[in-house]
Amino acid sequence: MSQLKEKLQEKIQAHRPRVTRLTKEFGSVVIDKVDIGQCIGGARDIRCLVTDISYLDPQEGIRFRGKTIPETFEALPKAAGSEYPTVESFWYFLLTGDVPTPDQVKAVEAEFKVRQQVPEYVFTALRALPRDSHPMVMLSVAIMTMQKESKFCGFYNSGKFNKMDAWEYVYEDASDIVARIPVVAAFIYNLKYRGDKQVAIDQNLDMGANFAHMIGQSEQYKDVARMYFILHSDHESGNVSAHTTHLVHSALSDPYYAYAAGLNGLAGPLHGLANQEVLGWIMDFQKKLNGAEPTKENVTKALWDTLNAGQVVPGYGHAVLRKTDPRYTAQREFCLKTPGLKEDPLFKLVAMIFETAPGVLTEHGKTKNPWPNVDAQSGVIQWYYGVKEWDFYTVLFGVGRALGCMANITWDRGLGYAIERPKSVTTDMLEKWAAEGGRKM
Ligand code: NMX
Ligand code: MLT
Question: Count of alpha carbons within 13 Å of 156, Cβ hemisphere only?
Answer without folding.
Answer: 15
